[in-house]
Amino acid sequence: MKDVAHTLTEFVQTHLPTARALEIEVADYDSASLTLRAPLGPSINDKHTAFGGSLYVVAVMAGWGMVYLRCRERGIDPNIVVAKGEIEYLAPVPTDIVASSIPVEEADWDSFFKHFDERGKAKIELRTQVLQDGKPAVSFKGLYAIIGLAPNL
């Protein structure tokens, strides 16, 4: 987990100033799911809970990071975009933001990578959530696409 997850942390720190400002870090990764953590401090609002925009960013990044890490495990340095995103705010989050991707069938990943191998691009729908007291506080569904290899930055 540490080696491949470190590549995501490095990428965020180098190329994603919004995620860097939120102090997003990898809490756990096991090829089936990714969990990110961001402290409440940089995201706190006037109600002393996490700002909705920050919740959105961390939820999006849990899916984006999942695609990134799965690609890196296969030796692909992907150019990833979020093609579509839908979020539901179900409860306030008065603590650190912890967002996890919800595992998908391995066959979905196989199809995703088969499309990429054949066409040089592919899409996959992933869901993420932020839990509060063991219950969903945020539910996110995103369509993530790799549109080729990452440009040399």
UniProtKB/TrEMBL annotation:
One Pfam family, short name: YiiD_C
Keywords from the named record: Membrane, Transmembrane, Transmembrane helix
Segments traversing the membrane: 50-69
Domain of life: Bacteria
Signal peptide: none
Annotated ranges, domain Thioesterase putative: 7-146
UniProt keyword Transmembrane helix present: yes
InterPro entries: HotDog_dom_sf (IPR029069), YiiD_C (IPR012660)
Protein name: Thioesterase domain-containing protein
